[in-house]
Specification:
This protein is mainly alpha-helical and about 280 residues long. The chain contains 10 helices and no strands. Helix 1 runs antiparallel to helix 3 (about 45-55) and helix 6 runs antiparallel to helix 8 (about 150-180).
Length: about 280
């Protein structure tokens, strides 16, 4: 009896098991080459479906940029708090010039007290406003007099770092949304459908144009079928007859039995062996 790829209950596999099965079949198909298996037409779509299915096995939940955002946020919280508190402390300075500088700055900075407890994106705009106040010429001079220029520089850099990390997170979010929008069941169904098309073609050619590559591929895939059938715990059978693939006539060879030169590989019964 000509070797045929067996059937099994593919629908019972988990997403991860299904993706792994198709990855292995795809690897075997590439080793044999789609041309040798006569599946050049199906191979690109099957490869794409297999890779897309693999991408949803473990969907990313966290973001790489989150840590950078948190670190930058801590620095700007500390910097903003120091600026307001230092200026407040100088209100009672015995040094008249410093007290005057503090009295100039404090009323303008007091609206920014406690911004470190605000939502992060809101805080970004508040920090921008605070830096705008401190960049006014008279205020900048007063800040220099109070010795808080390093804290202002730290606040500015931390806010810039936070915004840059937030932009990176937005890009990550976009990529995650693309994956989260995918329906795992539909991806499994599509990969399984394309696999079944390949199986039908390979099984047909195994009968009418057998080759070492086809036989080796069938043996390898049947090994996977047995293994993954056990994993899925499936009772396997195929009730509906499989349609015949269209195989072109081969010159200088006998025409296979069947109408219009097509191989008679389907008589209304699925004669592929079934994994029990």
């Amino acid at each position: 009896m000509t070797a045929q790829i067996r059937t099994f209950g593919m629908a019972r596999m988990t997403v991860g098991s299904c993706a792994n099965f198709h990855r292995k079949v795809l690897r075997s198909m590439e080793k044999a080459t789609p041309a040798a298996l006569h599946v050049e037409a199906q191979a690109p779509a099957y490869e794409a479906a297999s890779k897309t299915l693999s991408s949803v096995v473990n969907r990313q939940q966290a973001f790489v940029a989150t840590k950078a955002m948190q670190e930058a946020d801590k620095i700007r919280d500390a910097s903003a708090g120091v600026l307001v508190n230092v200026v407040k402390d100088y209100l009672t300075s015995p040094v008249a010039e410093k007290a005057a500088a503090a009295h100039l700055l404090y009323p303008q900075l007091s609206p920014y007290k406690g911004i470190g407890r605000h939502e992060q994106t809101k805080q970004s705009e508040e920090v921008n406003g605070m830096l705008g106040v401190l960049s006014i010429e008279a205020n900048a001079a007063a800040a220099t007099l109070l010795g808080i220029d390093p804290e202002i520089a730290a606040l500015r850099k931390a806010n810039e770092d936070f915004e840059e990390a937030a932009d990176e997170k937005a890009l990550e979010m976009n990529e995650r949304m693309k994956v989260s929008d995918l329906d795992s069941q539909k991806l499994m169904d599509e990969a399984n459908r394309l696999y079944e098309e390949i199986v039908r073609t390979v099984n047909a050619y195994a009968i009418v144009q057998p080759s070492e590559e086809i036989e080796s591929f069938i043996n390898q895939v049947n090994g996977y079928v047995g293994m993954y059938s056990d994993i899925a715990g499936s009772e396997t059978s195929t009730d509906a007859p499989e349609p015949e693939p269209e195989i072109p006539e081969t010159p200088d060879e006998e025409t296979p039995d069947g109408e219009d030169g097509q191989p008679s590989v389907d008589d209304g019964e699925d004669d592929r062996p079934v994994v029990q």
